[in-house]
Amino acid sequence: MEGIRIIGLPEARMVTSGIDGIEEFDEWFSEVNKTRKDAFFPRDFMFFDQEKNHLVWYYALPDGLEDTNGFDVVQFPGGLYAAAVSEDENDVDGERVYKGIIEWVNHSSCFELDERPGHYTMFHVITPDSAYQVMGYRQLDIFVPIKAIEP
């Protein structure tokens, strides 16, 4: 699969929706995100928590923000991720891209998968509203956790 990017995400404190608060978290996150002074990188990521069998949303806690509206704060471990773009809300395309990333990693001589409890594949919608309006769909970055193969 072409177009695989290797990115590093830093260790960070993340506000989490938990397993029961996605809609309320979306409202809180949307308001907090409007106060950002930059938009050069995503601060929010979603993933499927396999232990709890539920979708969870994370938001990197900005410096100085203390009011999390009652949502818990967790320590995100950071790490390396292999990433690629799929069409949002298109499960067939998302599965194609995910499998392509897995295949790429499995054939890599540099990296191996690093999915483990608390360290899952994540995703983030990357399309601004102005592009969505003309394209008719949004793009989704899929992030698969990897680690370097030790020599």
What report would you give on this structure?
With 151 residues, the chain is an alpha+beta fold. It has a single domain (5-148), classed as Multidrug-efflux Transporter 1 Regulator Bmrr, Chain A (Alpha-Beta Barrel), CATH 3.20.80.10. It is 23% helix and 35% strand. It is built from three helices and nine strands. Strands 1, 2, 3, 4, 5, 6, 7, 8 and 9 form a nine-stranded antiparallel beta sheet that branches. It is globular, with a radius of gyration of 16 Å. It starts with a strand and ends with a strand. The model has no long low-confidence stretch (mean pLDDT 92).
Give the topology.
Elements: E1 5-9, E2 12-16, H1 22-33, E3 44-49, E4 54-60, E5 73-76, E6 79-87, H2 91-106, E7 111-113, E8 122-125, H3 129-135, E9 139-148
Mean pLDDT: 92
Roughly what percent helix? 10-25%
CATH superfamily: Regulatory factor, effector binding domain
Query: Any idea what the radius of gyration is?
Result: 16 Å
Q: What class, by secondary structure content?
A: alpha+beta
> End-to-end span in angstroms?
25 Å
Specify the CATH class: Alpha Beta
Number of helices: 3
Provide the CATH architecture: Alpha-Beta Barrel
**Assembly state here?**
single chain
| Count of strand segments | 9
How large is the share of residues in beta strands?
A: 35-45%
